[in-house]
UniProtKB/TrEMBL annotation:
Residues 16-120 form the Thiamine pyrophosphate enzyme N-terminal TPP-binding domain. The keyword Mitochondrion does not apply. Residues 420-565 form the Thiamine pyrophosphate enzyme TPP-binding domain. This is Thiamine pyrophosphate-binding protein. Keywords: Thiamine pyrophosphate.
């Protein structure tokens, strides 16, 4: 990535808050500052140019800026640091901060403002930034004295990085940063929270779970944050339980594993509840039950079911529904201990029954995957004339991508086809949106590429979602960030159509009726090839499967960012 300006070191005698803030970030290993500049941060922006080891990643719109930092934080596990402009910039970023909050992204978001001295005047652009940020951050505060600047920066970084991780906000009045700061610069201390429940609690939970006949596991991003993928997989194998991801944005278990049951969904509670309705024992770890838009208000667990909930966030445990036992603990350490205790607690018949469940699931899952892949191949046989399908795009890309490629998935309705051909198998190689905020795919891929410049990164988005943050393409071109992008273009908001179909079925309301015309984006149809070119990113349009190998190879071989617009089979105006 190229630097935005030529830089020279600042004299050591400078000790304004602007410089001390950047020295603190440097002490904490911050290499990138993601931002869109404004006049109430002039002093800090001027000072950044004197720090050659902190690159300012310039974005043109704040929603895209935050999502780029989010992708970087996901790919590194370290807090992304963002600088916004006053209430206008923060307001533009709120939707992206909501995304970061719900996927527990470690992030420090700062916004400049004119100054504490001007509060009483209610001057132009004055607004309570903390009040704006509080609903969409883990912690929000404001600097009001130069000798508390660095302790607040460190507090914010600590809170952001401490599980359950999340975005935090710090308001920076320019008149405070203009003053001399006498605070020493010391690295931030992030507490080690890798605790495990005491042995008696672990053994008691294992005894509760050992005799299950139909066990189910519900997990979330706490698994990825803890590095517990291997421990979760081993526990599921010993217990013979299917695993589902709830509000998951990272790999929690290899998707090729027969016990992986997929994601719970995020719209309708009855769908999520059905996954545990017949379970006699449920383990919940690293999430809560259930994060749906329209959740089921009733207890989803059957009467008498054993429910064990493990999390580092005590608020998440039994948050919405009663559980049999709740344990505060790090997912990796707790699952490791629970696996050992379960092996000791299970009788030989129980072990045999668990092994049989794994065998049956393996046979079933293998048949399902083979059938789906065969159907995909059958649908794309006439590669020259048949409408392009996402399965063809994914299959062609799967044949070309290197083993260490990173996929950032915001394909949404096209994600099932994408992940059939590019199934996530390793931590750190797959990220996705958990839903709720559109426009994370393009900037997320850019952030991941900044984190791993040596690896191939491909971001997927839809023709609807891509419009939310298309400005990020300019950032990729400006800084020569070689992320690749695939826009799944079907001419409308297909997710809304799918959800409306479900709504009509649930309410017995004319399920065959035409969709509202404003679910389509066709007149005019967004031209992503020209849009990308206008942002400085070369692009190509794919209409037929036969064209894919050449187009995708060109994308991957290009030295720099590149976009492919995949014109997919348009489902039309009716179900």
């Amino acid at each position: 990535m190229t630097a935005t300006t030529d830089r020279t070191e600042a004299p050591e005698l400078l000790a304004t808050g602007h410089r001390r803030l950047l020295e603190q970030l440097r002490a904490d290993g911050v290499r990138f500052l993601f931002g869109n500049p404004g006049s109430s941060e002039e002093g800090l922006l001027d000072e950044i140019a004197r720090f050659p080891d902190i690159d300012y990643v310039l974005g043109l719109q704040e929603a895209a800026v935050v999502c780029t930092a989010d992708g970087y934080a996901q790919a590194t596990g370290r807090p992304g640091v963002v600088l916004l402009h006053s209430g206008v910039g923060l307001g533009n970023a709120v939707g992206s901060l909501y995304h970061a909050l719900h996927r527990q992204t470690p992030m420090l978001v700062m916004a400049g403002e004119a100054g504490v001295a001007y509060d009483a005047l209610e001057a132009h652009m004055s607004v309570n930034l903390v009040d704006i940020a509080e609903p969409v951050t883990k912690y929000a505060t404001r600097v009001t004295h130069p000798d508390s600047l660095l302790r607040l920066v460190r507090r914010c970084l600590k809170v952001a990085a401490t599980p359950p991780r999340g975005p935090v906000f710090l308001a920076l009045p320019q008149d405070v940063l203009d003053q001399i700061s006498g605070e020493p610069v010391v690295p931030t201390t992030v507490p080690d929270t890798r605790v495990v429940p005491e042995p008696g609690a672990i053994q008691s939970a294992a005894r509760l779970l050992a005799g299950a006949h139909n066990p189910v596991i519900i997990v979330g991003d706490g698994i990825a944050a803890s590095g517990a993928v291997a421990e979760l997989t081993r526990f599921a194998e010993i217990w013979g339980a299917v695993v589902h991801g709830a509000m998951a944005s990272e790999l929690l278990m290899p998707w090729t594993h027969p016990l992986w049951g997929g994601l719970t969904g995020h719209m309708f509670g009855d769908g999520s509840a059905s996954l545990v309705a017949q379970a006699d024992a449920v383990l919940i770890c690293g999430t809560y039950v259930f994060p749906d838009v329209f959740p089921d208000l009733e207890n989803p667990f059957r009467p008498g079911a054993t429910v064990v909930h493990v999390d580092l966030d005590p608020y998440a445990i039994a948050k919405n529904h009663p559980v049999t036992t709740g344990m505060l603990g790090d997912p990796r350490l707790t699952l490791h201990a629970l696996t050992g205790a379960l092996e000791e607690a299970m009788t030989d018949p129980q072990r045999h029954a668990a092994a049989e469940r794994v065998h049956r699931r393996t046979v079933q899952r293998t048949a399902e995957v083979d059938r789906a892949l065969t159907d995909d191949l059958g649908a794309g046989r006439n590669a020259d004339s048949a409408p392009l399908r996402m399965s063809a795009v994914a299959a062609a890309l799967a044949a070309l991508l290197p083993d260490d490629a990173i996929v950032f998935d915001e394909a949404l309705t096209n994600s099932p086809a994408l992940t059939r051909w590019l199934p996530p198998t390793r931590p750190g190689h797959f990220f996705q949106t958990p839903g709720g905020t559109l426009g994370v795919g393009i900037p997320g891929a850019i952030g991941a590429k900044i984190a791993h410049p040596e690896r191939t990164v491909v971001g997927f988005t839809g023709d609807g979602g891509g419009m939310y943050t298309c400005q990020a393409l300019w950032t990729a071109a400006h800084h020569r960030i070689g992320a690749k992008f695939v826009v799944c273009h079907n001419g409308g908001y297909q997710l809304l159509k799918d959800n409306l179909e479900q709504y009509r079925q649930d309410h017995d309301d004319d399920p065959g009726a035409a969709f509202p015309p404003f679910f389509d984006v066709r007149e005019p149809r967004v031209d992503y090839v020209n849009l990308a070119a206008g942002m400085g990113v070369p692009a190509a349009r794919a209409r037929h499967a036969a064209d894919l190998p050449t187009i995708l190879r060109t994308m991957l071989d290009h030295d720099g960012p590149y976009l492919v617009e995949a014109v997919l089979d348009d489902p039309g105006d009716t179900p």
